[in-house]
Write a structure and sequence with these properties.
Elements (H helix, E strand, L loop, with lengths): L2 H17 L5 E3 L2 E5 L2 H11 L2 H16 L20 H5 L1 H13 L6 H28 L3 H8 L3 H30 L6
Antiparallel strand pairs: 1-2
């Protein structure tokens, strides 16, 4: 693995941790907060190679498990994985990996395509793992946990849209820089 790859993984891990500094939105009827850290997951999947995306999210979860209060609301430690949002957290690496794999198969990266990939992977994979885990921890039916989770969909769609725009802009900027380097010009 190249130094550049390791730096990109570390940067995305740090971005996800920094998004945890933004306080969560707590809801009265569910213990799972609304956070911006899923946006970091989307960006990692959108900007990193599949192996990098997977390692970046695994590294983030490892640091959180070690006790670093990087989750929104200054939460950290192994106990967060045994709470109602534990299933969502454990699905982060799989979602980032799937996003990255899917994007690598695209001939052309567009905002609309990224939005669809981000929405399907973030809502599909995270909810598929998170809802049953939440139901088990809260000792409720899966259908009841699924109904509680409907409140998160509009926010997840907004995050998917914003991250799709950002990802396209960042990819374009990185491609422009690579063209300049390849032409022998000094990259900005």
């Amino acid at each position: 693995m190249r130094i550049q790859d390791m730096m990109q993984m570390a940067l995305m891990t740090a971005v996800i941790g920094m998004l945890g500094l933004i306080p969560p939105i707590l809801l009265t009827f569910t213990p799972v907060p609304i956070t911006l850290q899923t946006a970091g997951l989307l960006l990692a999947g959108g900007l990193l190679k599949p192996k990098q995306a997977l390692i970046s999210l695994l590294l983030f979860l490892l640091v959180v498990a070690a006790g670093a209060p990087l989750l929104s609301g200054a939460r950290g430690g192994i106990g967060v994985f045994f709470g109602p949002s534990g299933g969502f957290l454990l699905a982060y690496p799989a979602a980032a990996l799937m996003i990255s794999l899917w994007i690598n198969r695209l001939q052309k990266v567009t905002t609309l395509r990224l939005f669809v990939i981000f929405a399907i992977c973030s809502i599909g994979i995270l909810y598929l793992c998170g809802i049953p885990f939440q139901a088990m921890i809260m000792n409720i039916k899966v259908t009841q946990a699924a109904l509680l989770s409907l409140i998160y969909i509009p926010g997840d769609l907004i995050k998917a849209g914003i991250c799709a725009v950002l990802t396209v802009k960042i990819i374009a900027a990185m491609s422009y820089r690579k063209r300049d380097v390849n032409k022998g010009r000094r990259a900005v």
